[in-house]
Design a protein that fits this description.
The protein is of the alpha/beta class. The protein is about 30% helix and about 20% strand. Strand 2 (about 55-60), helix 2 (about 65-75) and strand 3 form a beta-alpha-beta unit. Helix 4 packs across helix 5 (about 185-195).
Length: about 250
Amino acid sequence: CMRHAQRADEVDDEPWPGQADRPHDPPLSAAGREQARAAGADLAAVTAAAHPSSTRLVTSHFLRCLQTAAGVLAGLRGDGDDETVSLEVDPALGEIAGPPFITDAPWAGCAEPRDWAWTGGSPASALAAAGLPLSTPIITPAAWPSPPETLEAGHARYDRAIAAAAARAAADATPTTTLILITHGEAVRRAVTRVCPSACVYEVAHCGWVGCEWTEGEEGGGGCDDTWALLPAKSAGVGWLDPTRTVE
């Protein structure tokens, strides 16, 4: 579960195209685009060491995540066009639609995310602008929270989205599948605390990721019999504390 790369508004005070219509959906900075490709290359090495037979990339629909996915996809594939890497877009992995993650005053006047999250246009135009194939499947197109979304509601949405993505991957998986979720910092934080509720996550860097191992239970689909385990050795740029150890 990976956070997106550096946003343009974090390093540049200049407005970006479409800022007036989608102030909460900035593109990546130039450095961010490089970060994304480098992260993809790093993940390619991690997945190769695990001997996966396929890799599935699932991304939030926010522009910074779509652009991160494009960079990660390029890094994963290297100079080739690796058909074992597939791509999906899932709006359920989107940013929490409430303060402090998306701020707007007053919230009663904030536009619904569905009105601006596709970079102010259509899903096809958003995919094209990010450099992703127009044929990319879009999962759960109705997964739009109504602002203001609480932190608890956002975490519950992330829980459902993570479990559902794992279940989709398992449904048509080859013996070993690596699932990469490109999302937002709070979703990465939640990926840790949903497995270790007592953990205190103190860092989620740009393109930082946390690794988990998932085993489908008898009920499947994220049911109560599913098991999740954190993999600190297969995590990077995410730091947390739990009662028994420190992971950096």
